[in-house]
């Protein structure tokens, strides 16, 4: 009997997989290889010299006024990244919110995040 859990690597989200410093964010913002757009979200993607992909989020109070909503976006992005990271190349990814998310539901927000990760995986 095959054990499917042992077939996939352990999906975890470690500190090494996060963009932490302003300089790391600046590198991605200043010279992105790709910009992936959705109606409310956008991702800047750039190759990195590290042994794994990394993700960062720049979600402002102006676009997402409540902490609950900001944390929800971050949770969705981290979860999707955690499950897809082992298939991805060594890239730095920074998510931003282009316009207010008041007019969309949680499912649409999840779909936009999933679509961004699908586009990142294709290339």
UniProtKB/TrEMBL annotation:
Keyword Hydrolase: yes
Keywords: Endonuclease, Hydrolase, Nuclease, RNA-binding, tRNA processing
Pfam families: Ribonuclease_P
SUPFAM superfamilies associated with the record: Ribosomal protein S5 domain 2-like (SSF54211)
Coiled coil: none
Reaction(s) catalysed (UniProt annotation): Endonucleolytic cleavage of RNA, removing 5'-extranucleotides from tRNA precursor
Origin: domain of life: Bacteria
Top-level EC class: hydrolase
EC id: 3.1.26.5
Role according to the record: RNaseP catalyzes the removal of the 5'-leader sequence from pre-tRNA to produce the mature 5'-terminus. It can also cleave other RNA substrates such as 4.5S RNA. The protein component plays an auxiliary but essential role in vivo by binding to the 5'-leader sequence and broadening the substrate specificity of the ribozyme.
Subunit-level organization: Consists of a catalytic RNA component (M1 or rnpB) and a protein subunit.
Family to which this protein belongs: Belongs to the RnpA family.
PANTHER family in UniProt: RIBONUCLEASE P PROTEIN COMPONENT
Protein name according to UniProt: Ribonuclease P protein component
Organism of provenance: Psychrobacter proteolyticus
